[in-house]
Amino acid sequence: MIITAALVGAETTREQTPYLPITAEEIGESAARCREAGAAMVHLHVRNADGTPSQAPGLFAAAIREIRRRCDVLVQVSTGGAVGMDVDERCGPLTLAAREKPDMATLTTGTVNFGEDVFWNPRPLVREIARRIRAAGIQPEIECFDAAMVDEARYLAQEGLIDLPAHFDFVLGVPGGLAARPEALEFLIASLPERCTWTAAGMGRHQLGLVELAAIKGGNARVGLEDNIFISKSVLAKGNHELVAEAARRGRDKGREVATPQDARSLLRL
Ligand code: KMH
Ligand code: ZN
């Protein structure tokens, strides 16, 4: 089971949790502790010094350097960024090369209500981001906040913009998106094109329960402060690593072996 740690996100604030990593060094440290706890990959956003979200290549480069200086965890950059960002801003981390080149990049394949906001992904924009990911020679992770986004990946494959089989991430429990219900996960798994792999990411209180469900169903799991700040009811996780350690424990409890970054490379066909 591949555990991905969503370290930072674009929405979680230091007011909500003092354990959110913001600087490149904090991100590097958090990634290394997550690797020790069982994460094979990190899903990466970055922040300006004042904590606001950014997609600046320089900030990503600094964070990736700090991560790779400390450990061998795979790095998946966000092209979602924060709501309201335009395509060039969102695609900032795709311009990184050589030692700072990401291992994967996210590709959300549809628009979704996102709390009180809208995470805009009209089809021309999705195609453009898919083209840029492909041109950069990076493998996408298809982010699905709702069921139609799985079907949209099939169209992208028909248009030659992504390859199948691909890796999918089912992001469940965003207010306005598909809820974190077992039947929803069941339907998504059944909807996947042949030989595709998948990760489940539950928002808020759904996070750790979804890890168990994913483990039972043969999938992979994402945890971390981007999606959830609590280790148990009203108790803050003292960092991303605590959530990863709990995910690894629950996965092993269900009979799953926790993947190393090298295992993940072969499982994800990187
Ligand atoms: N911050 C959300 C609006 C991604 O990383 O690709 C989008 C997001 C998805 O987090
Ligand atoms: Zn993200």
Instruction: Sketch the major β-sheet.
Output: 8 strands, parallel, barrel
Apparent shape: globular
Q: Which ions and ligands are bound to the chains? A: (5S)-5-amino-3-OXO-hexanoic acid, zinc ion
Rounded to the nearest angstrom, the radius of gyration is 17 Å
Whole-Å distance between the termini?
A: 16 Å
Unreliable runs: none
**What's the quaternary structure here?**
single chain
Helix proportion? 25-40%
Structural class, from secondary structure content? alpha/beta
Q: Average pLDDT, to the nearest integer?
A: 98
Spatial strand order of the main sheet: 1-2-5-6-9-10-11-12
Compute the number of strand runs: 14
Number of helices: 9
Order of helices and strands: EHEEEHEHEEEHEHEHEHEEEHH
Q: Tell me the fraction of residues in β-strands, as a range.
A: 15-25%
How is this structure best described in words?
With 270 residues, the chain is an alpha/beta fold. It contains nine helices and 14 strands. The chain has helices at 24-37, 57-70, 87-90, 123-135, 148-158, 182-191, 207-216, 240-253, 261-267, and strands spanning 3-6, 41-44, 46-47, 53-54, 74-77, 104-108, 112-114, 117-119, 139-144, 167-172, 197-202, 220-223, 230-232, 235-236. It has an eight-stranded parallel β-barrel, surrounded by eight helices. Strands 3-4 form a two-stranded antiparallel sheet. Strand 5 (74-77), helix 3 and strand 6 form a beta-alpha-beta unit. Helix 1 (24-37) packs across helix 2, helix 1 (24-37) packs parallel to helix 8 and helix 7 runs parallel beside helix 8 (240-253). The protein is globular. It starts with a strand and ends with a helix. Bound molecules: (5S)-5-amino-3-OXO-hexanoic acid and zinc ion. The site of zinc ion has 7 residues, from loops.
